[in-house]
């Protein structure tokens, strides 16, 4: 799956820079904690004001620390340009708004991230923009949902509850055939393990908060794509909505970016160990992890991904309350949302499907950086 040499070469260029005399040889990019930038004379100021995004004028438009991170993320994703935002949702909503207008139609996988679904399915209705949610695994449903006014196909592969994939190349072809744009949320895999732009996707969004930052201490989002798409987004949604990333957050993300490939390798290995362990447990009826041979889309995962991460879920016939009590007894798994940091996480909820009989519980597991052997021992002891 993973081209190790290519990945190592690529991440070396992302993590290392030539000595920059502007920063006195500093190994880390300085934090430019400033709201504005002054000029020697008014002629220089007037020239910069012609295009504030290409000059350091005001940090809402262009801050050197944030710009450095954007350049690194674009390089990592093999895109032309990146734009960072204050959160994943700021990036997602801005990317969507940059390509649609009143009267347009959107198609999206029904398992998309909850706030994204709310934005598409509820918020945009006030602008006469309708979204059709489909089974992301069914090309027939994607094709049947197309309308003359379909302008966006929004993807999230894998999804973050049941970890279903979409066939990115096939959906890019469908979008191009009807004149629609494609946006893909790649937060689960990161650029280490999936390259949607190389598969033809127009724009990729990431919640930087997760694996990219990697330390559970800052929020952020990014949109990456070609210059045409990102320039249009930058001039409009980025500048007008104001959901910018701060230089402090950018510095924290830059720190995390340096260890991203090493962390993702550990997450992949540990996640698969825990997932395979859970497959053998009597209280588990199904494990949703694309890296498992038992996953119904495992072959697709091998075809369009370079590797896997450590967020997955399992299903159980045990009552929700029993599994919540089990989660409460765990020592190393904290109960909380999100993922990507050192600490392992767990959440338990009922499966909302009225067609199912009896107890059906979904447990989402994030495997952090702890020893997988300790995590397994923790789970086993808590179940007794």
Automatic annotation (TrEMBL):
The modification N6-(pyridoxal phosphate)lysine is found at residue 210. Gene3D superfamilies: Aspartate Aminotransferase, domain 1 (3.90.1150.10), Type I PLP-dependent aspartate aminotransferase-like (Major domain) (3.40.640.10). Its EC number is 4.4.1.2. The keyword Translocase does not apply. One of its GO terms (molecular function) is methionine gamma-lyase activity. PROSITE patterns: CYS_MET_METAB_PP (PS00868). The keyword Aminoacyl-tRNA synthetase does not apply. Keywords: Pyridoxal phosphate, Transferase. One of its GO terms (biological process) is transsulfuration. It catalyses: L-homocysteine + H2O = 2-oxobutanoate + hydrogen sulfide + NH4(+) + H(+); L-methionine + H2O = methanethiol + 2-oxobutanoate + NH4(+). It is an enzyme of class 4 (lyase). Its cofactor is pyridoxal 5'-phosphate. InterPro entries: Cys/Met-Metab_PyrdxlP-dep_enz, Cys_met_metab_PP, PyrdxlP-dep_Trfase, PyrdxlP-dep_Trfase_major, PyrdxlP-dep_Trfase_small. One of its GO terms (cellular component) is cytoplasm. PANTHER family: CYSTATHIONINE GAMMA-LYASE, TRANS-SULFURATION ENZYME FAMILY MEMBER. Belongs to the trans-sulfuration enzymes family. This is homocysteine desulfhydrase.
């Amino acid at each position: 799956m993973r081209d190790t040499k290519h990945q190592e070469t690529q991440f070396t260029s992302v993590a290392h820079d030539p000595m920059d005399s502007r920063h006195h040889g500093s190994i880390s990019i300085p934090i430019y904690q400033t709201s504005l930038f002054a000029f020697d004379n008014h002629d220089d100021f007037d020239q910069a004001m012609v295009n504030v995004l290409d000059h350091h004028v005001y940090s809402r438009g262009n801050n050197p620390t944030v710009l450095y991170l954007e350049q690194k993320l674009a390089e990592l994703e093999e895109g032309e340009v990146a734009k960072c935002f204050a959160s994943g949702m700021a990036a997602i909503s801005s990317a969507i708004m940059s390509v649609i207008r009143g009267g347009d139609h959107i198609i999206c996988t029904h398992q998309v991230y909850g706030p994204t679904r709310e934005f598409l399915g509820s918020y945009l209705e006030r602008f006469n923009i309708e979204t059709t949610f489909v089974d992301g695994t069914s090309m027939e449903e994607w094709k049947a949902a197309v309308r003359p006014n379909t302008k966006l196909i929004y993807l999230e592969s894998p999804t973050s509850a049941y970890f279903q994939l979409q066939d990115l190349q096939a959906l890019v072809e469908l979008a191009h055939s009807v004149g629609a744009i494609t946006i893909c949320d790649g937060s689960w895999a990161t650029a280490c393990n999936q390259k949607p732009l190389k598969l033809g996707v127009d724009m990729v969004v990431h919640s930087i908060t997760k694996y990219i930052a990697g330390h559970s201490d800052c929020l952020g989002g990014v949109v990456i794509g070609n210059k045409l798409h990102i320039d249009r987004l930058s001039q409009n949604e980025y500048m007008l909505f104001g959901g910018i990333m701060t230089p402090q957050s950018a510095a924290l993300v830059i720190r995390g970016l340096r260890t991203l490939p090493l962390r993702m390798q550990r997450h992949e290995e540990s996640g698969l160990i825990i997932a395979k362990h859970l497959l053998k447990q009597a209280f588990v009826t199904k494990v949703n992890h694309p890296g498992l041979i038992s996953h119904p889309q495992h072959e697709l995962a091998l075809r369009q991904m370079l590797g896997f991460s450590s967020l997955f879920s399992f299903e159980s016939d045990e009552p929700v309350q029993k599994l919540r009590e089990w989660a409460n007894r765990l020592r190393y798994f904290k109960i909380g949302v999100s993922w990507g940091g050192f600490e392992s996480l767990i959440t338990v909820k009922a499966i909302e499907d009225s067609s199912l009989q009896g107890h059906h519980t979904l447990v989402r597991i994030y495997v952090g950086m702890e020893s997988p052997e300790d995590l397994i021992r923790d789970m086993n002891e808590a179940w007794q």
